[in-house]
Specification:
The chain is 29% helix and 24% strand. By secondary structure, it is an alpha+beta fold. The protein folds into three domains: 35 residues; 92 residues, PDZ domain (Pdz3 Domain, Roll); 174 residues, 2-enoyl-CoA Hydratase, Chain A, domain 1 (Alpha-Beta Complex), CATH 3.90.226.10. The strands form five sheets. Strands 10-11-12-15-16-19 form a six-stranded mixed sheet, with helices on both faces. Helix 1 packs across helix 2 and helix 8 runs parallel beside helix 9. It is globular and about 100 Å long.
């Protein structure tokens, strides 16, 4: 028996419209709803392949929201779960980072202390099958979704080693028990004695705490912290609260960011408190590029406006809008743009981004080996010795700073600031 779609009046009630007699500018237009119902019915009845009603409704909602702006979206239950995992930094899986290489799904690296690491999964291992399903022609996102699941459930992978100790036994099948995996969003290292480097890959729930721990490790290094590089390149953003808390680590007070939206609850001001983790006199360089977006731009903009850091690199992405995630009754969610970001000085980030104080193009640093062969006075036989020399060699930069040109330039700038500061201090004491 044919099932008819609700009448236009019933559809209006379904979508929350008021009765036609009510002269309300916010009432849904019943004629348009009637047209929508006609299109819906025609697709149901005459499209070449049967399509269930849920799929049609999902597609209609996705289309309704996707045309508003690039960042608003209707999220089905699976997409909503992925979003929550991305912002929390936690998911149930086996702990491997995967990528695609020449059409194959390969392991980039296992995460330490996870099921994958404990069973000897190695970088470069090719994943031939997930469970009983071959990965031939499988997309990377599909593979990631299949490998994740509920905590305590089992996952079987068939792996082929490119080389190494497993080569003679390849392919091999391993069974794992999924665990809660925590992704770290902050990493740190020493660029040169006294000069630290902290990279934030995205702003998740625990990012500010991870930043604190990374900074403490740098402070406890052999040399006092004389300068810090904060790397926000290719950071797509994340949680607003996390970005605000991280920016607060550098500032003694003042406005960090404010938002403007149509509704009062979407108009907010976020300020720094007196406590800060980064020493006030420590020079800071923030590295940005075209992949620095949203929450990462908030941090860069706040530090720039407060003149707390020198921003170096390329103009940022320019995502200056706020998305609010609204859970829906069926397990899905609506991600809707509800406000715009503004830096402390009142600049909108939207479409313009953060313009760096010093422009540096991305690239790598190639050292000219021939320069090391140049003849100098000290190279000559029987040259006179400088008995009063107090010449000191500059400590070499880390391999990372040597290979990453913008990072190397940031380190050079920090060193220059300290040299200039020391000379200025010596001059003022005369």
């Amino acid at each position: 028996m044919r099932r008819f779609l609700p009448t236009a009046l019933a559809m209006a009630a379904l979508f929350g419209a008021t009765a036609p007699a009510q002269a309300d500018v916010d009432a849904l237009p019943l004629e348009d709803i009637k047209t929508f119902s006609q299109v819906f019915e025609q697709v149901r009845q005459t499209y070449v392949d049967p399509v269930d009603d849920k799929t049609l409704f999902d597609n209609a909602m996705k289309g309704m929201v996707s045309k508003l702006d690039p960042h608003s979206a209707y999220l089905d239950a699976e997409a909503y779960r992925d979003l929550k995992e991305a912002t929390s930094g936690e998911f149930a899986g086996i702990g491997i980072q995967v990528g695609e290489k020449r059409g194959a799904i390969v392991v980039i690296a296992p995460i330490d202390e996870t099921p994958a690491a404990r069973q000897g999964v190695q970088p470069g291992d090719r994943i031939l099958a997930i469970g009983d399903t071959s990965t031939e022609g499988m997309t990377l996102q599909d593979a990631i979704t299949r490998m994740r699941g509920d905590e305590g459930t089992e996952l079987t992978l068939t792996l082929e080693s490119a080389s190494g100790s497993h080569a003679e036994a390849s392919p091999r099948t391993l069974t794992f028990t999924r665990e809660i995996i925590q992704e770290e969003s902050v990493s740190e290292r020493t660029l040169a004695p006294g000069y630290g480097y902290i990279r934030i890959s995205r702003f998740q729930k625990r990012t500010a705490d991870e930043f604190d721990r990374a900074l403490e490790r740098l402070k406890n290094d052999k040399e006092p912290l004389q300068g810090l590089v904060l790397d926000l390149r290719n950071n797509p953003g994340g949680l607003l609260d996390s970005a605000v808390t991280t920016a607060d680590e550098f500032l003694e007070g003042g406005l960090i960011v404010y938002t403007k939206g149509r509704l009062p609850e979407h108009r907010s001001r976020f300020t720094a408190d007196a406590a800060h983790a980064v020493p006030e006199r420590t020079p800071v360089v923030v590295l940005v590029n075209a992949g620095t977006a949203s929450a990462a731009e908030i941090v860069a903009g706040a530090l720039k406006d407060h003149q707390r850091a020198i921003i170096m690199g390329e103009p940022t992405f320019g995502k200056g809008s706020v998305q609010t995630v609204m859970p829906l009754s069926n397990g899905s969610a609506l991600k809707l743009t509800t406000a715009r970001y503004f830096t402390p000085d009142g600049h909108s980030i939207q479409a313009t981004g953060i313009v760096p104080d010093i422009g540096v193009q991305r690239g790598t640093l190639n050292i000219n080996e021939s320069e090391r062969l140049q003849v100098r006075e000290r190279s000559l036989e029987n040259h006179l010795i400088n008995a009063s020399s107090n010449r000191t060699e500059t400590a070499p930069a880390s391999e990372l700073a040597q290979k990453d040109y913008p990072l190397g330039e940031a380190l050079n700038l920090l060193r220059g600031l300290n040299v200039w500061g020391a000379r200025a201090k010596g001059h003022s004491s005369d």
